[in-house]
Amino acid sequence: MHFLALLLVCLLMMWCTPLRRGLPVDIPQLWAGFAARRLADRPLLSVVLLLLPLLPVALLQVWLVAQGWTFMTLLLFVVVLLACMGRGDPLGSMMDSFEAALARGDVEAAALVAEHEQGVVGQDAAGVLTAMRAALVRDMLHGYVVTVFWFVLLGPVGALGYRLLRLRLAQDMPAGGPVSALAHALEWVPARLMAASFALVGHFDHARQVLEDALLSWDVAADDLVARTAEAALTGGESSLADEGDNAALADTRALLKRALLAWAVVLALLAVLG
């Protein structure tokens, strides 16, 4: 059921580009905003309220399974997963304007696109390119890898729980709070699996060295780990992609992400066959 729902969602996102940004009405985002406003001065209760929708989703799943309504259960899985995946398009054409501006040497236009599309800021071409590359990897981690990981393990509850936590973190939550700690815990294993996949499909030795240095470290942020591993997998430790001065760095980054996703797809397919 999990693999079938994931396959359907992937096909829908391939055929319908707007779905890469999520459903037209982002109900999790609306709920996260409500929870933040309702209990802004009580962080622990705010987290409880934030995660409250997990209970009805879990009960609905249990009831549908008990009734034997396979199609309705699959529909629940697909809708919840669509509501939780994406919100970015790291493999699509959304960055065409950025890459076109960079290719013609218009650094100012590229910087404006980067700030508008991804909220990243750089002082020069190298800084903008580095920030955009890290943003693409971060979008893949948050929007796809961690979401799919917890969906496979826990179903809709896992995917929705992580999505709600990420939304709350985006609302200027202080570092070190309960939401930040929960999100870090949920990202710890998937980030290392993603980094390992970069090593498998890129420059293995250099990516492996970066991964080994932070493999068992609880304090290393997931975003930082996958960004550094991706750069090592792409450059092989020879030079920085930001020094290339054209749009090849983003093209190579997206190619790396596609190869890593293919590796994940093969693993999930094997698990589905064996399971």
UniProtKB/TrEMBL annotation:
Membrane-crossing residues? Answer: 44-64, 71-88, 141-165
Lipid metabolism found in the keyword field: no
Q: Name one GO cellular component term.
A: plasma membrane
Q: Which InterPro entries match?
A: AmpE, Beta-lactamase_Reg
Instruction: Answer whether the UniProt record assigns the keyword Transmembrane to this protein.
Output: yes
Keyword annotations for this protein, in alphabetical order, are: Membrane, Transmembrane, Transmembrane helix
Instruction: Kindly list the biological process annotations in GO that this record carries.
Output: response to antibiotic
Question: What's the protein here called?
Answer: AmpE protein
